[in-house]
Each structure stands twice: as C-alpha cells, then as structure tokens.
Amino acid sequence: MSIIIREKYESSVKRAMGKGNAIVLVGHRRAGKSIILKRLSTDFEMQGNVIFIDMEDPDFSSIRNSFDLNEFIKGKRSSSKHNYLLIDEVQEIDAFEKTLRFWAKQDDFDVIVTGSNAYLLSSEIATLFAGRHTSTKIYGLSYEEFLEFYQLSENEESFVEYMKWGGLPFLHKIPLSDERSRTDYLGDIYNTIFVKDILTRHKIRNVNLLNNLAGFIAENCGKLFSPNSIAKFLKNDASAVTANTISEYMGYLCETYLIDKVERYDIKGKKVFEQQEKYYFEDIGIRNYLCRNKRSFDVEKIMENLVYLHLKQLGYDVYVGQLNGKEVDFVAKRGDDLRYYQVSKAISSEETYEREYGNLRLIQDNYPKFVITMDPTATLSNEEGIQTILLRKFLME
Question: For the chain, which residues make up each domain, given as ranges?
C-alpha cells in the first residue's frame, strides 16, 4: 500500500476548521505531513475550490514572499465556492504569516499549512497571526501504523524492525532487507535537517560541535544532564565549549523537531524543575543512525524513547517524575488524566523489581501506575495497584 489513512490527524484538522484560524501541521521532515495535506486536498476538491501550493515543487518557485503569495491566491480564488488554501512547507515563503492572517479570517476560506521548523510556533509568529492559528503535531508512524503500512503481522520479528528503523513513512519503499539503502536514507534526512534547517537559518560556524552534540544526545537519550555537564564532556584542548553555546545549539536541535526536551516534574510538590532535563528523539530510526558506529541497538534506551513517543502521540504532556530523590521514568498528563510509567527491559531480578515497583509504590495517590517491560516471564497483573504491560501490547493501545 502506498498511502495510509491517518484518521486521528485528519479528524483533528477538520475539527479545527471553520473557526477563522490558520491550521499549522508541524513536525520533523518526512514525518508524513505532506501526505496528510494531499489527502485533505483530495477530500476538499469535492466540496469547493482547492488552492494547493507545494514549496518543494519548482513550479511554485516564483512564490518567494508574502506579496507573491497574496497575488497567487487572488489569481486562484473562487468567488462562487468555498476556498481551501493548502501550503506545504510554508516556512520557505518569507513573511508568509502576513498574508495567511488575512485569508484565514475570510468567511469563504480555510487555510491549512505544513512546516518543518518550530519557528512556526514561536511567540513572534503567534503575535503576527494575532491569535489566528492553531497547530497539530504530526509524528512518524506509530507501531500500529508501521504494521499497517508495511502489511506486517504483529510479532517479535516485526517489532524488532520497528525498533531498528523507526517510523519515517518513505522507508517502506526500500526493502527491509536492503539495510544499506535504508541507512543512507536516514542519513539523508538527518543531513537535510542538519544543513537546511539549522546551519542555513542560524549561520552556525562550529559545525563539528553541533554534529557531536547530536551524537552525544543520541547515545545518552533518556539520561538527565545539563548544558554545563555536556560542555565539560565535549570540551577538548582544541576547542573550548561553553554551557551557553551548548544550550543554544540544543535549542536549534529541538526547534527542527529532531529531539524533544522533557522536563522534570516534582510529583509531591506538583511543580516543574528548571534544571536538568532528558532528551528523546522524535524518530528512533534517526537516533539509531547517529549511533550506527557505536551501540546502535541499545534496547533500554530505545524502549524508553518508544514509550515517550507513544504517550505523545496519544496527546499526553510528558515529564520525568521525581519523588524524594527517586525517579519515575514518565509522568503523563492529559487534562484530568494522570498516569505514571516505569520502563524496564527485564524485571526478573529482585533488585530490578524493587527499583521499578518500589518507586511507583512511593507515590501516595490513586492515579494509574504502570511498568512497561519486554520480559516474557513478567507476571502481567495488577499488583498493589501497579499494572505490568508488555511493550508491544502497550504500543498497540
């Protein structure tokens, strides 16, 4: 199959329409935003006039700025039908928000755009849109979508492939057996993010530092660290690295949606700490690519990253829990829904069992608590209010 219907994203967009806001689909490159936009375009063609602009198509290279965009829209606008303006990779148009702000508030227009840069969500853009925009975050394929996309059965072999390659949709066009070409594709995506979305925009001079930093985070995803601790680790005789520079570069990596920063949450005090965070990748395949010459298949780190991504795909705000000096891997909040998660490859030893379950038992409230594991010998029951779930089952929920 060539196209998967990602109903949750399409429904989210349609619910946001008709409110006078521009709708922005955001996420890292090749996460599937363009396909969602094209599917919406096909649906809308039966309902009205579609104005579709693909900024990666040379046919639209004449649209360079807000003025060009406005002139193009005026030339394509229908006065007798409802208009659907869809723009792919809108950040390629200078000052695009000035034009979109106007057209979004017209009664006969719905405006939907995609972008691969967090600049679209900055306070500056929010101000320029004058409150007239909403955003929908698009992630790569979930495990369930991966199985559907590749037409695979749910089993251990399929799950290993998902852990190895992640959820970039285009990869399904390259056979699973062709590991060289699949790795090259992941490298191309990383280099596009690295060169186009960071170096070009921010005029980075210390390219090696940025690349080393991305590699460091890939090797240490799921560990607590601060810019100062990273600066000490990366510092060498040839190049002094400051914590401010590390903090700045990490911000660049986050704004491309390559990585996410996850803050610590004081479970007892119900507050967010301002120092030391964890970082996870938005695509596990790219993370594995960056570690390809090292520990490319560190199962514990990949497990944590996959649980984090699944919780985000389900719409939760996710934090690292802290309670009396103990750590809970994830605190997930969605409205009044609050959940606690520990992640462990195996829980057969007494030491591991006590660490994973003991930390959750310390939490004195009645919100759901879970241990996520790959241990086939684990007792999958609700013990002392703590439910144990196999990772593959959890990712299918």
Answer: 7-137, 141-397
- Rounded Cα distance, 373 and 346, in Å: 6
The pairing of strands 133-137 and 49-54 is: unpaired
Q: Cα separation of 104 and 337, whole Å?
A: 33
Calpha distance 344→391 (Å, rounded): 9
Angle between helices 207-219 and 243-255 (to 10 degrees): 70
Fold of 7-137: Rossmann fold (3.40.50)
The span from the CA of 223 to the CA of 183, in Å, is 25
Residue 150 pLDDT grade (very low, low, confident, very high; cuts 50, 70, 90): very high
Q: What is the pLDDT of residues 190-242, one digit of tens each?
A: 998 888 888 888 888 888 889 999 999 999 999 998 888 888 887 754 457 88
Tokens of 265: 């949450």
Asked if 314 contacts 339 with a C-beta cutoff of 8 angstroms, the reply is no
Full DSSP string of 158-213 = HHHHHHHHTT-GGGGGS-TT-HHHHHHHHHHHHHHIIIIIIIHHHT-S-HHHHHHH
Please, are residues 138 and 15 in contact by the beta-carbon 8 Å criterion?
no
Phi, psi of 189 (to 5 degrees): -65, -45
Helix axes 7-16, 33-44, angle to 10 degrees: 60
